[in-house]
Structure formats: C-alpha cells, structure tokens
Design goal:
Chains A, B: This is M20/M25/M40 family metallo-hydrolase. Chains A, B: Keywords: Hydrolase, Metal-binding, Protease. The structure is a homodimer of 492-residue chains. Chain A is an alpha+beta fold and 492 residues long. Helix content of chain A is 31%, strand content 22%. The first copy, chain A, has two domains: 290 residues, Aminopeptidase (3-Layer(aba) Sandwich); 127 residues, Alpha-Beta Plaits (2-Layer Sandwich), CATH 3.30.70.360. The N terminus of chain A is likely disordered. At the A-B interface, strand 10, strand 11, helix 8, helix 11 and strand 12 of A face strand 10, strand 11, helix 8, helix 11 and strand 12 of B. Strand 12 of chain A pairs antiparallel with strand 12 of chain B, so a sheet runs across the interface.
C-alpha cells in the first residue's frame, strides 16, 4: 500500500561524490556489487503474495535467512493470526538503537503484462535512469531492503560494527493492509526491543530525476473498503441478474449504489461530504505551510504534472495550494467500480449487485475507527442502511516531529551526501507507521533512502542498479546512503 | 437482444391433444423427429458470432442451405456493409404471403460456465419440463427456427403445399443490435417481397409453466450505449491510472461519471430524468390498460416474482400497476459499470477512465434517434459535454394493431390448439421489428410459437424436445404449432 513516490517531488539536488570518511565502506560495497544483485534477484524469484496465500511460510523463512546472513541474531519467524512476521536484532553494544521495518510480501502480478518475466529480475536499460533490474518487488520493497542489507554485508566484510544497535521487524501482509501487524509489534519479544529504538524506518529509494528526496513528517491514514448494493441486502430489485427489460417494474441495485456514492462527496467529486468528516481534521500549522511553500518553490510544476498525466489541479489551484491540499485534505477516492456486464460491448441485464471499491485517506487527527463509524452512520442516515460496507484494511495517520533524532539524522545524512532533501509535512500515501508512532510502541517512524525505482503494483516494476543520472544514486550509492544514516544517527 | 420471455407471464392454459384436421401432419412431424433434432444439433455445432467475427460467412451459407432444404427457392446470401443476410421465397401459388424473420447468429459463450459442451447439443433431463437439448442458440433462436423448418419438412414429405406463400429473411447481426438489417430489408429483391406479406414473425418458443403465451402487440425500442468519463476527454484528472494518494489534488473521472449518471434518473433510480424524455411518450390507451388488467388477473404474481428473484415491484406497486409500468414506461438501465481495479480486494489507484454500459428502453412514440439526441443534449446542458456517449446499437419501438390479420390468425391458432394466449400491449424487451413495421416495409411484425426453452445469453441455454408438462409443447408439438398458424392465416 506504500505509494511509489511522494506525489509532489522536491527541489533539485546534486548527488555528491562519496569521498567522505565512509570511503572505505563505499569501496567495500562496490566489491560486493555482484553478490548484492544476485541476492536481490534470488529474493524476487520467490514472491510471497498474501492475497493469494502464495509462498507465505517460505517467504518468512527466506526473510529470516536474509536477516541472519546480514548479521542479525535471535532471528525468529513469529506467528500471527494471519501470515507470519520475522524479528531479529543486532546488538552492537551501542548506546543508540535503530529500528528497521521490512515487508517480505509483494503485490499480485500478471506476467502477460510484463515486458520481461516478473520473477527473473532481468537487467534492462531505462533511458534517463541507467540500468535497472525489472521484477515484482524491485522497488516495493525488496530492492531498497536488499540494498540496506548490502550495506550491512559490506560493514561485516570490512570488520566494522555498525555504530548503532539494530532491530528488524518484517511483515508479510503489507500489501493487504497489514491486518496483523499490531500483533507483531506488540509481541512479547518485539515490543521491548522496538521501544528502545530512537526511531524506525522503511528503506525507500524514491529519488526524483533531479536527485531530490523528501523527509516526510508523517503520512496520511487510509481505510480501504467496498460498498456493495445488492437486491439481496436491499430487499428490493433482483437477487441475481435478470433481463434488463424488467427495469420498468423492478428496482436497480446499480442505481442504488450510484445514488449512495454521490452523497459521499461534493458535486465536483473533490471534497468529502460524509457527515461530520471534518470534525477532527487539524488544519495545517504555519510551519507546515512554510515547508510546503519551500517545496513548491523548489519543484518543477510542469514536470510533476507531466509525470502524473494531469494538466490541471483541482479547482485550477496554483501549485502551492495544490500541495497544501495534497498534504492537508482527507480524500474519498473510487479505486474501482464493478457491476453487471463488464466485457466488451453490452449485455441487456439488470444486475443484482454493484460494488464500489473506495479508499479514504485520513489526516490528523482523524482515525481509522472514526472514519469507519462515520461512513456507516452517514449511509444509514441518508437512507442507505442496506448498502454494505466491507472494510479490507487501513491505518491511522502518522506524525513525526521534525525535532525527532531520526529526522535530524536523516537531514544530516542527506546533507553529507549532497542530496537535496525537503522536509515535507505529510506523505499523501499511507503505510502502517501508526503501529509504531501510536502507543504502546510510541517511536518516530518514517522512510529513508536514496536511489531510484518505480512501477510499484504495476507491470515492469524496476530498481536502478547503475545510474546514468549524476543526481541519482545507483544500488551501491543507495547502500552507502543507508550506512551514512547509521553513522549520522549515532552522531546525533 | 431478444429477451428470453415476456417478463410477466399470463393465465393458465391447456395444450389440447392434436386431433384436429392437421392430424396427418402431426404424425408426419413425429416421423421426422430424429432428423429434426439432428438438424438442430448440427446447426448449433456451427456458432456464428458477429461480435467475434466467427463463422459469419459459413453461418450465412449454412442458413441458405437450411432454407433450400426446407423448400425455399431463389435462396441468396446477400452482402451488407456488415455481415451477410439470407433471403429466400416459397411461392405456393397462394393469395396470402407470410414473412419469416430468422437470425442465424448466436450470443458469445464461455464453455467453462456450461455443464455440457455448448456446441454439442446434448439432451439432458430438465425437471418439470422434460428432456431438453442444451446448446448455444437452443432457444435464442435456432431451436424455434429449426422447429418451424421441421414443420415445413413434414409438409414437403407429406406432399402438402403450405396454403400461404413464404418469404424468409435471416440476418447474422441480431446479437450486436442488427446494425445492417435495414440494408437487408430494403434490398432491391427483398423489399418488394416483404411488402407483399400480411405480416412477419420470428419463431419464439416461450410457453410458461402453465402453457401460457402472449401475443405481443409491439415491443419497446432500445438504445444500447456506453457513457465514458476520462481524464483524456475531460482535460481534468489523470489520463491514465495514478496512485490514489493524488486524489487530494487531482480530479477523478470516476466521480465525474457517478455525478453525470445520477442526473439521468430520479433519486430512486426508477424514472428517467433526461431533459424532455417524456415529450413523445404516449400514455397507455384504455384498451391497453384493459388488456393489462386481463393479464394481471390471470397471472400468478407470486410465481412471477419468484422466477425473477424479486420481492417488491417499484414503489411497492400492486401487480396490475407494475405490469402497466412494465408496458408503458421508458427505462434508463445500467447494464454494467467498469472503472479502475475490478479484481478481488483493492488497489490504491485513481483511475483515468470510467465506463457505464446503459440500455434505454423506448416506448411509442419515442424514437431511437430522438433518444440519442436528447441524452447527448442533456449531458451537455448539465455540464458534462466531455462524457462520451458511444452508441453500439438500438431499435425504434414497434406497434402492431390487434386487428392485423397476422394477430387474428395467431389468436385463432392458439385457440385451436387449446393454448391460453393473452393479447399483451407491448413486449418490454426489444427486437428489430421496427425495420418491418416502419416505412418503407410497413407490415405487422411480431413473435409466434409454442414450446419452451430458456437461458438465452446464459450458460446451459436449452430447448425442450419432449415435454413432460402436459400444458407445454415439445419440439414436435411446437412444429405443429407453426403449421397451425400457416393454416389459420390462410383462412383468416
């Protein structure tokens, strides 16, 4: 569910040559390059897909093996009521502990839609970026995770102990909304270890074409759900599909769904109209607006629009206000509609059922539980008690203080590498970070990384191995970036 | 596009034993039974599917062969701008000429959904009905058509000339909305032949469980179309699918479609709200209401509801008013909705495009051209000029006078066979009959037949061969029914 990249990239930045005190490690990482690529390719060859119950046990065992190889100890596959997680620690005798959040699962894929086999990890040329490894999970999230492990392998080979202790927690259900992740995070062995961490992050290689990255001070929450109108639940209309000529005397569950849907948003489809939706929405602070203004000023609006395939923001807003909206507004989005006949041409039926797949993004101080409750109450109050609401997953929003030690260390690490990093109030996408930021864990949680890839959830997902863009790191540079963060956190 | 059966069946009736003056032909039909079944099975084995451009030339040639074998002369495959039609005549030197409308195409099918191979024509037991031949086209429309041909074969074998001349016109595009049927009907050889006909009918074996049939004095028209909202046409929102987190700053073509749709109907989804839609809608006449009252009084409402899987009519109307609505009201039906991710679970995308598949049923004096024009004007006037309207086919409504000679002959034929037949003002389904009823052809056009089958357009479509229901004809009885009509028309 983690998005490909922040929707709105940031100002231009240059990737400095790594002639820092970490030069020795840079050379060691370069030596391990072939083994690091092979490790990633082998991992991609074993896809764990929770939605298909595919390779889940195998994937957890494999993740445990990767952790052990990288130097973690006490590595354990931890059962949940769903698919298992993996936990391990690396006690380096340091005063500071850093958490690493991994996911070993990947999104479903259809090989027919790919230009090279999705489990092969073939290396192809990506014009403008360099050579890139193509495969399911390449960027979301095995590529960045394997790259962090590459950094740890290099330190191990060089006989250098990381200057922080590490705690690794991996789940296998991220792509289905992390339904049992709280069980993992509050497990008797895991919780005390997490609480020791100065913060936790998921490796993420999201540099834009100008090398830019963002340091996200939180992320929106989300609820994913289906709304279902059916003759069966309604007690009107047909229970199955019948001939469409009967519309003259029989009610339509499809029209019912359309009417229910249109009560959820303003007529332009852009603002939630669910009763009480904005009660707990906290407006942007002056500081958040300031950070957005900085981002807008240093971003290339035309390039952003071109990448997204859009020509106008909502209400034709200027760029800065569009980013403010992106960071501050909850959304009611229709991911998909399915009813009746969906093939080519037509088929004269009156369908017995209609489904809308929605995602609702939430901002502080909304909560997932509040959102579910209010949507149900809204449907009931507007005369649609029969429209079923099937929630498949979701997270609360997260917030991280810009004064958190992990954030300060990220700023220093990016600066040390000459990477332009903008503080950004809130990722418009969502991730299970609230499991860490909320009690009982209560630690800062965010993303970190340089390097680049794209195509999460899509065909031809890729991760750049050797970058031809001087502003963007390849795999080795990205591995060094993770090492840099470890050193900067120790020193912060 | 022809519906399986009239939505609302009629009063109970008994199928009399055929000890009429046509007894000799009844025995001759019984003798030909095996050959008649074999002829139907062979025809089903060659599916012509216009939407897939499958076996169209072969299907037309096969249809021509069937016509020649049954005694038609001058049989010709006639080219159109689409798929060809077949035309033939049988000049019996009679003062009266009867038209036969056939379709040689069938609906698409997925063998995986069938309990026996859809091209095999396997004969299975259908509890409550008898033995039935299962195959694509069994009831829609090869079964009834082959049954009529069986009657002609029997007459030929018995050396009996039909007491009317026959004109046969078959098309191969009925299942895609008959886009070139007018070309066929107005062809230089065809038009003069059709204009000589006292009327034309499509063989239809739609007896209900109590043996009831209806004599439909017309049928609704229809327009089938897709409404498409897209970022491309709108100039807002994304041109392709993008990550759903962008909903906060980017417009949604899916919400656009939902908003456009909900302007088309009243909030209950049951009455068209398209500007000017009812201008030319003719209310039911006193006679039409009378016919409906007779139908309602002699029908079993509970059984009708059970067959359709509905528990309430629109507005909880009593049965008679529900049938009035069915006969008199134009409809705006959503056949299907397709947008974004339609698979299991969710996928966090903001789709670039959304499609609604609609069928609009039309009543006299609406026309297809008027409906298309008004829907476009409505969308434009309500601020949706970008919502594309792609019409795939349609027909005008048809009307036939109850005093037409063909209708009188049908009443007599059913009465002679002891079949309860209700005059019904208007089939709520649609068929290309307006090509016949409108200028320049201008002849009565309707359906006729006894016998039973069901499952048009669905898996396991079937046609009853030997009926175990004493009120319902099997194939031989249905063949005799067609012969009966021929005699009754000659005598009317």
């Amino acid at each position: 569910m983690l998005p490909v990249a922040s929707a709105l990239p940031f100002s231009q930045a240059l990737m400095a040559a790594p002639d820092s005190p970490r030069g020795a490690l840079a050379r060691e990482i370069e030596k391990g390059r072939d083994a690091d690529i092979a490790r990633l390719r082998e991992w991609i060859a074993l896809p764990s897909i929770a939605a298909e119950n595919r390779n889940m046990r195998e994937g957890a065992q494999y993740m445990a093996g990767l952790a052990r190889d990288a130097g973690f100890t006490g590595v354990e596959v931890i059962a949940t009521d769903g698919h298992p997680g993996v936990f391990g620690v690396m006690d380096n005798g340091a005063p500071t502990t850093l958490g690493l959040y991994f996911m070993y699962d990947v999104k479903q894929f259809d090989p027919a839609e790919w230009s090279s086999p999705p489990l092969e990890g073939r290396i192809v040329d990506k014009p403008g970026w360099g050579s890139a490894l193509v495969g399911r999970g390449a960027i979301n999230q095995k590529g960045p995770e394997a790259t962090l492990l590459a950094g740890l392998h290099a330190m191990r080979r060089a006989g250098i102990r990381p200057p922080v202790n590490l705690v690794l927690l991996a789940e296998g259900e991220e792509e289905i909304g992390s339904p049992h992740f709280r069980q993992l995070a509050t497990h008797a062995r895991v919780l005390p270890a997490l609480k020791k961490c100065a913060g936790i992050f998921i490796p993420a290689c999201w540099q834009g074409p100008d090398g830019e990255v963002s340091i996200n001070l939180g992320a929106k929450g989300v609820v994913e759900l289906e709304l279902v109108a059916s003759g069966k639940a309604w007690g009107r209309g047909p229970t199955g599909d019948i001939h469409s000529s009967n519309k003259a005397s029989v009610d339509s569950p499809v029209w019912r769904l359309v009417q229910a849907l249109q009560t959820l948003v303003t007529p332009d489809g852009n603002t939630a109209a669910i009763d009480g939706w904005f009660e707990n929405v906290r407006p942007l602070t002056a500081r958040e607006k300031e950070l957005i203004a900085i981002s807008a000023a240093s971003s290339d609006e035309a390039k952003v629009k071109q990448m997204m395939g859009v020509t106008h923001w909502i209400d034709d807003l200027p760029f800065e206000q569009a980013i403010e909206r992106q960071a501050s507004q909850p959304t009611v989005n229709i991911e998909g509609l399915v009813a009746g006949y969906t093939g080519p041409g037509g088929k004269t039926i009156l369908p017995g059922k209609a489904v809308a797949k929605l995602d609702l993004r939430l901002v502080p101080n909304q909560t997932r539980a509040e959102a579910e409750r209010k949507l149900r109450a809204h449907l009931d109050a507007h005369g649609f008690p029969d429209v079923e609401m099937n929630v498949s997953g979701g997270y609360d929003p997260t917030e991280v203080s810009e004064n958190a030690r992990l954030i300060k260390a990220q700023e220093k690490a990016y600066a040390a590498m000459g990477v332009k990093a903008n503080l950004y109030p809130r990722l418009a996408g969502s991730w299970p970070g609230s499991t860490f930021t909320a009690p009982p864990v209560s630690i800062p949680a965010t993303q970190f990384g340089i390097g680049h890839g794209s195509g999460a959830h899509a065909p031809d997902e890729y991760f750049v191995i050797d970058s031809t863009n001087p502003k963007v790191a390849g795999m080795s540079g990205a591995a060094l970036g993770f090492v840099e963060l470890i050193y900067q956190l120790a020193a912060t």
